[in-house]
Amino acid sequence: MSSSPQTTPARMVSALLAFLLACTAGGFVLAGLAMPLVAATGTVSNATTSLFDDLPTELTFTEPSEQSVILAADGTELARFYAENRVLVASEDISQHLKNAVVAIEDERFFEHNGIDPQGLIGAAFNNFTGGQLAGGSTITQQYVKNLLIEEGRNSNDPDLIAQATERSLARKLSEARTAMAIEKQMEKDEILTGYINIAMFGPSQYGAEAASQYFFSVPASELSIPQAAMLAGITQSPARWNPISNPDEAKNRRDTVLAKMYELGYITEDEFRESVNLPIADMLNVSAPVNGCESAGISVYFCEYVVKDLLASESWGDSQEDRLNQLYRGGLVIHTTLDTSKQQAAFDAVTTYVPVNDPSSVEMAMSSVEPGTGKIVSMVQNTNYGSATPEDPNATTVNLNVGMDRGGGYGFQSGSTFKVYTLIEWIRAGRGLDELVDASRDTYTRDDWTISCAPEYADAYNPSNIEGIGSGMMTVLESTKRSVNLSFIDMASQLDLCNIVGVAEQMGVRSGNGAALTPNPSSVLGSNNVTPLSTANSMATLASGGIMCEPLSFTKIENQDGDVIADISPSCVRVLDEDVADTTTSALQTVVSPGGTGFRAEIPGHDAAGKTGTANMDYHAWFMGYTSHEASAIWLGHMEGNISMFYTTINGQYNIEVYGGLYPAQVFSAYHTRILEGVAPVPFSLQTVAANENGATVLPQGRDNPAIRPVPVPEPEPQPEPEPAPSEESDPAPPVEEDTQPDQNPGEGDVDEGDGE
Predict the structure, then answer these.
(1) How confident is the model at residue 152 (pLDDT cuts 50, 70, 90)?
(2) pTM score above 0.70
(3) How does strand 68-71 pair with strand 334-337?
(4) Which of 211, 404, 436, 507 could connect to 206 by a Cys-Cys bridge, CB 3.0–4.6 Å?
């Protein structure tokens, strides 16, 4: 008698699935009702097969999450970010050994079935029907479907979707099977296998074979050997149990099981099998633990953290900050930044040459550099290691000393005499000249002497002083700028509106660390506001570009995992100063960076430079900010903990009676710009105006501004620190350094303790 159609394996599976579906849907009552249909196998077969006739024709899944990468301007990798450590690779970038191993151990009939394996399904269904756990029978395609659904739940932060994709029920298995069959109709076998290898776990925290290959063996997935491929293929069943690092013996047993299956199926020869099983686990491993986030960026870690915060705050891409964060860690983004790696190295070398990391002085230094006309941040460094302070590394910090609180920084630091630049600019904007004489002797001001239109309540009595109270009579604005005379600038400010002075500073990009508006009180003229190095560098870039202020720019382009540009950032610039005002200011600030100027150490051989020194009261903070035609920089030196005097401090083995902006910060400026301009043709400042002459004014001695009064300190045995050190006169002449009296951190209105400054 010929074989009846009812006895074929396919119809047996259909009948069994009908019975199991009935059991799941309605319990044993419905199962009893279904049994007559099972007996009539032809009818049941047709009915059950129809479950798979109406398959989905359009399948959409979220792309598997992938690492995002942050790049420097030249394409150098700075850091990677991921929620799951995964790197998607193409089929040709996956070793054939791994493909063979995965098929051998996971789904040996993968190339024969259409998404579901009848033999596997019979075993799984029988196991479930007899009371065992639902297990086995899943093809690679079904596992691919399951992993895609789990990934979709992760990407959308939907725990219910994850639960549905992992629940142990026949309904889920049937849905999974339907989707698997649909996928088989739309994708080639190699596409499915590649997709599975990219999404499955091949380690305790490694998703996809590329990440796992790099982690366990430090090789790409394309170069996996036979035993390496077998080990990875075996891990997926239980990533923790088969972890070769924590469980090498069990991992070897599992690897050898996979190798035996590969040999059985003809994927490897007997010699290859024997050679592979004899290879010790320890000889296979070459672990390269990945670093997730900016800590892998080395000397650029603080810039990297700034970029991340900039990305999350930018409305140029992503629907919300939460969406942007999700894309950063899951979207496989490629983020192009403005950082110039050669300049970054030059900046770090300059800073740490003068103030090494963990110098015994415990002083910190930070430096930012900006490209004029674009606002691109080309370098950003500080002499600290990233992390939490320890006894071995007491200065380690996660605080970016270059920026404000909204970008991972702090409150900023008192600016000292660098802030005089903005009084000078407002003076020029008001139509006043550099050759005009101002009073460098007056040291008493009343409330009525001030114009503060935006906040008149800040007007108060003020008693500033030059160093040691020495006056200097009348002198020109130009000479006052070159020598940074306090009382000259107070006299100038009293003839202006203080709101305009702090206003022009803000228009040029100067920002406080906490984001608050700058305070227009009398002491602000000498630098009582806390500001950040990046923002002051940006203000110098405004002068270098002839009065055009550009918002600081840290990234220029973002691409998604398909290579599509999702954000293309152009400089955001606006003219804030007339060109002649900017150029006249530059002509004055050039005299600062010249012999006899307070910033003479900032000179750059063969190149024009301009800038301003600054030191806060009691040498709490020291600054230099300056620029060339190519680039603008700001350097801060001090203690990040707050106002701590740097009198009598040994820095990098050099003992200093005082520490001021014209010393270490100016030297760093010169060292950095000299290095980055090596081989670059000089580009003189193209000025629309020139500085006025001194009009025959007599310049009287100005404390540190006069070589006969205050030379550069020479090394000597370090004395015991005194509670209230007073500057002393030295006999040997030396170039001038800047006078800069500066109020305490939080002075009361009109009650400022003026002391020694730069």
Answers:
(1) confident
(2) yes
(3) parallel
(4) 211
